[in-house]
Amino acid sequence: MRQPQWMSLLGLATRAGKVISGEELVVKEIRNSKAKLVLLSEDASANTQKKVTDKASYYHVPVRMVNDRYTLGQLIGKDARVTVAVLDKGFADKLISLLDES
């Protein structure tokens, strides 16, 4: 089974050191205007979803939803992650276009 392109690109961005994970780090980088894209798992708690989407909305950072925390964690080489931020504009723009296509 072939992996969707956005998943491969997120793995590449992780290896390039352009991805951070964890709610607190993601919110911090949104505030510092370093986050260019936030990926949020659909199974995140309502409180986490509200906190991250409100902060991203205020700082004009795009947010895209992905399937679940285990898939998101696996893609960046961790266990389970509910939120991930991409710090590079090029990776973020390509991920947005690939996620919007699928």
From TrEMBL:
Asked whether the keyword Ribosomal protein is assigned, the reply is yes
Residues covered by the Ribosomal protein eL8/eL30/eS12/Gadd45 domain: 6-95
Alphabetized UniProt keyword annotations: Ribonucleoprotein, Ribosomal protein
Task: Write down the InterPro entries for this protein, in alphabetical order.
Answer: Ribosomal_eL30-like, Ribosomal_eL30-like_sf, Ribosomal_eL8/eL30/eS12/Gad45
Which Pfam families does the record match to this protein? Ribosomal_L7Ae (PF01248)
Classification via NCBIfam families: PRK07714.1 (NF005825)
Protein name as annotated: YlxQ family RNA-binding protein
Q: Which organism is it from?
A: Jeotgalibacillus haloalkalitolerans
